[in-house]
Amino acid sequence: MTRMGLYCSRCSMQIPFRYQDMKCVCGGTLLVHYDLESVAKTMTKEALWHRSSSMWRYKELLPVSDPDCVVSLGEGWTPLLRMSNWEQKLQLSELWIKREEQNPTGSFKSRGFSVAVSLLKESKVTKAAVPSNGNAASALAAYASRAGIASFVFIPLDCPSLIVEECPLYGASTCLVDGFIHDAAAIIEAGKKDQGWVNVGTLKEPGRVEGKKTMGIELAEQLGWTFPDVIIYPTGGGSGIIGMWKAYLELKALGWIQCDMPKFVCVQEEGCQPIVEGLRSRRNGADRNALPSVQAGITSSPTGMRVPNPPDLDLILSIVEQSGGTAIAVSKQQIAEAGQTLGAQGISSSPEGSATWAGLLTLCDSGWLSPSDSVVLFNTSHAMKYAASGVPDSLPIIKNYEEYLRLRNA
Amino acid sequence: MTRMGLYCSRCSMQIPFRYQDMKCVCGGTLLVHYDLESVAKTMTKEALWHRSSSMWRYKELLPVSDPDCVVSLGEGWTPLLRMSNWEQKLQLSELWIKREEQNPTGSFKSRGFSVAVSLLKESKVTKAAVPSNGNAASALAAYASRAGIASFVFIPLDCPSLIVEECPLYGASTCLVDGFIHDAAAIIEAGKKDQGWVNVGTLKEPGRVEGKKTMGIELAEQLGWTFPDVIIYPTGGGSGIIGMWKAYLELKALGWIQCDMPKFVCVQEEGCQPIVEGLRSRRNGADRNALPSVQAGITSSPTGMRVPNPPDLDLILSIVEQSGGTAIAVSKQQIAEAGQTLGAQGISSSPEGSATWAGLLTLCDSGWLSPSDSVVLFNTSHAMKYAASGVPDSLPIIKNYEEYLRLRNA
């Protein structure tokens, strides 16, 4: 087993591995720590040639200790598509799109939940719950079903109905919440003891970050063991940014890559941009305790980027700053136009994926990107999952845990 | 270049390669013929370890001669998922599902159109048209956009609206047809000379069968260079069956596999089952000229399996018989139940994919499958693409080419 324990991303304290409670006493987020010398013994670049085209090819850098507990539906090793004709138009050295929508649940969320649910299985957990804007819920539902674990998902009422409908299809107990993702999270926190739920929300357990980390390792392998200059990523809770940053650090420590850290660019939608605002506050000298929390007047669309209170905003901001990256907000209109542009290139992109294209155009216009830059965008899901079809009538709508209980007991 | 020319699947006559008109003088279908000695020089099992995880890893067995003309969106090399817990329940030696919904356009149709559109590009074609029950249209639309080729798609009015909506998203000129897929095909045939369309319908050009062939090659590689005993496949026009059979023959001729031909099982839906009926007719001694054509009373759902007149029914039947396979029809109800069963395993399956599960259960019940059998099912698309959302109001509805012209001129 290559998994050694956990370490704090803020104060660096190391503790033994545990499955729940990822907050360090200092308030930082705990992440998985590996014995990289052991990793290097069996995971070599040559060994990878013979491994499956799945994110589990990097099993030594994933925290599941019992191979029989791996819960897989065919996730990861998604195509990295070059957009050559746009490189010239936009004056970039390289432009790529990572097609995360080609994962088993039609979104990048498959990666995190493949690891998280494997850890649930290893820990003999029987009930898992998640608050989600849709794709995380559908991924938990699918992987939990595959593992024979009961899943309970709580999704804001205005989230895309087709994604919501996937959850009961996969066998999840599904509730719509009259509120935002933090309201959904509050319901789980209120009920978890009573109901026996393990909360697998963002940064609540170690698996999802580790699963998202494989996006970074894969990117490096697909580019010939290097990173691009810039990664533009649609950011909500931030586990993807944290994961890819961790991939960079681990590959660097293994001596597999020589390049600088990629500049991480977080893209959000206007109307819910805590990362953009947090970065501005920090640039103006505010310390972490002065970072804004729950914004009033959230007006952005119900996508994966709408996370008013990322669980560890400070860590995301540190990564972005450390990398020389930035955070930008784009408008609904820019996102819609970007979706059309990508569609006309043969790519079905979710609003989140489209937002990275809109962000790319903004950064090209502003001169932030330079002609020598290689850039990778992430298309996190299919456009069609966001098609309008109305709220499923069959699902209950609740505001809080009391209403949940009332419904269950009715 | 490994592509040598075309050969007739019925009379074996060889002719030089051409892009259009795949009917031999004898009435058989022309298929691509390769110089397998040349193929073997550069395509070795070892060489494949270092190639991209895309169907283009088999480029020597694909008919595109100019590598710059390859039009790719990240297709093929889809996961093959083992269903271990069902092997015991169903008493089978191995049960696998090939997850074709993880292709770039969310369906197996990506494969055929990646090759077909590459050939269009190589042939400097500027306008392509296809009759389709949905997924072929959306695949043509996506790949044609990527290649800068104009696409024109004609889809029966009752086909899934979300798939229909993808076509204009990808930039295709999209028409709904008040009729079946053969009515849509008739419109293209009537207009192709006037409009400059190349018809890329099933078996109209050599690329789609070759692209679908990669499903078979991949399956063999993923299983360690062997085929399963049985392949259960949802069949409409039949290019997938023809392609996988061709994969078997070519791999056998290369000496890469030693196994017997897999038994091909075609699954259709009750209410449109020309393959099931054709097989029955042949078993009763009917010759190919007596095969039934356009059935009256088509009552099956608008899926990819609803093809009342497969372009070369005789070839499909010959392959099924040669392989020791069979053809079965399942009901709407069985398909719906199978979709639930697969969903509860974490798999989002299209009605076509669900039909293979329903077919599997039928063949287990009847004793046709034996406990020593290894079986592979194909899930050809995502469930969500088939969600109801109503006919898009913005699209024209036509019955024939005259109405098309009237609309265009209005």
UniProtKB/TrEMBL annotation, chains A, B:
Keywords, ordered alphabetically: Lyase, Pyridoxal phosphate
Entries under CDD domains matching the protein: Thr-synth_1
Signal peptide: none
Pfam families, alphabetized: PALP (PF00291)
Domain of life: Bacteria
Boundaries of every Tryptophan synthase beta chain-like PALP domain copy: 71-380
Required co-factors: pyridoxal 5'-phosphate
InterPro entries from the UniProt entry: Ser/Thr_Dehydratase (IPR050147), TrpB-like_PALP (IPR001926), TrpB-like_PALP_sf (IPR036052)
EC number: 4.2.3.1
Single GO molecular function: threonine synthase activity
Full protein name: Threonine synthase
Species assigned in the record: Paenibacillus plantarum
